[in-house]
Amino acid sequence: WIWHMMDQSPAKLRNLIGSPKDFEYAVEYGQATNGYGRFAGTGAGENIGAEMNRAERVKSSVRSGAANINMKAGSQFGMFGPEDSPRRLSEWQSWNRRLSAATEHRVAASTYERSRIAGKSEAEASNDAWIATTKHLDAMSPREQSKWLRLQHHSENSVPGETLSQDWAHQIVENMKGATHSAKIEHTAEAGTITHSGGEPNMDLVHAMANGRTPPLSRFKQLVHEGNAPLKVPGRLLVADGDGSVKRIAGWGFEKVLNPMVNLISRDSTTLIEYMKVRRAMQPSVDAGILTDEQASTIASGRSVAPAASPSAMKSRTTDPVVTARPARRRLEREECIWV
Asked: What is the pLDDT of residue 166?
């Protein structure tokens, strides 16, 4: 990606590598944007704290059916139970897929699996997974830790005296077990005695998560029929999709065809250059402890909008040491073509 951003020019690439901080900023930008576009923002964890209103979901379903409107996943999350089949089935698989893609959940699942194979109880294996996950989080660099809000604040139900990583590790282990274990049912006898059943691990799901894989939907369907599924699973709520067919096709064309072309021609390299300039200016605040690396990167991204197409703006960009390996005149001609 950097080779492309440097116009596949060895001289430009040498200039960039010759400035370690600029090279660091370029890599930071590329990783944060997946090589194009803009920053998506910082994730805040995986737990779902709210439960959706079933009555409203039924109303929405009736309305969409009456109006013959297609549905699409919205931005709000809810919990899906047995009454929501087959939606519950697909959301359970999606939940496992999301957790399998996270390194910290793979660490928890692999440790839990090894402990259970060694004959340890569910509580002992959970504690081993918690310890391993805590060590994994503690091993992150300060810069990486600054990207996670869970490593900035304790959770609402945190145990007094625990560190931020220990607190988050508890949630990670519980998420892993919630996605891979059957529902734990509480039974109250007439004498007031409370017992529990269920909560058994589906070890093939644990093994798949430990290896970053997701079983096929047929396996989740089989577990549901066997009664080895969670009681409820998180997923996105459906909302009415009012876009017509023509608009959807046009949107797909913009997203898949035109937007990448615009990024390639006039946005990526210009935005990267502006990002590096702003990020350099923010570094003293980071060194002084006023801002974290993540905050500086986010601010630099917001300010790295392509400047107005004026000769002075173009001239200022041609003097950047990263892009002046070729004659400035050729660079100016190229940018004039871009802005026109």
From this structure: 93
Contacts for 48-56: CB closer than 8 Å, 24+ residues apart? 48/77, 48/78, 48/79, 48/234, 50/77, 50/78, 51/78, 51/79, 52/76, 52/77, 52/78, 52/79, 52/237, 54/83
Tokens 């005149």 sit on residue: 329
Residue-averaged pLDDT of the chain: 74
Residue 307 confidence class, pLDDT cut points 50, 70, 90: very low
Instruction: Please count the other Cβ atoms lying within 10 Å of the Cβ belonging to residue 277.
Output: 18
List residues bridging with 71 in a β-sheet.
240
* Residues in the chain, overall count: 340
Rounded mean pLDDT of 108-134?
95
Burial 103-115 (b: 16+ CB within 10 A, else e): ebbbbbbbbbbeb
Comparing C-alpha atoms, which of 338, 284, 322 is closest to residue 18? 322
Higher pLDDT, 69 or 100: 100
- Tokens representing 147? 């990207």
Helix (H, G, I), strand (E, B) or coil at 70: strand
| Bridge partners (DSSP) listed for residue 234 | 79
User: Using CA atoms, how far apart are residues 318 and 260, in angstroms rounded to an integer?
Assistant: 24
Question: ∠ CA(112), CA(118), CA(123), 5° rounding?
Answer: 50
User: 100 and 204 in contact (C-beta within 8 Å)?
Assistant: no
Query: Can you give the pLDDT at residue 126?
Result: 94
b/e per residue, 159-169, with b = 16+ CB within 10 A? eeeeebbbbbb
CA–CA distance, 324 with 179 (Å, rounded to integer): 53
From the list 301, 224, 258, the residue with the least C-alpha distance to 25 is: 301
| Mean pLDDT, range 31-42, rounded to an integer | 49
Q: Is 269 exposed, middle or buried (0-12, 13-18, 19+ CB in 10 A)?
A: buried
> Could you give the percent of the chain with pLDDT greater than 70?
67
pTM, entire model: 0.53
Cis geometry, peptide bond prior to residue 284 (ω within 30 degrees of 0): no
Burial class (CB in 10 A: 0-12, 13-18, 19+), 139: exposed
Confidence band, pLDDT 50/70/90 cuts, at residue 334: very low
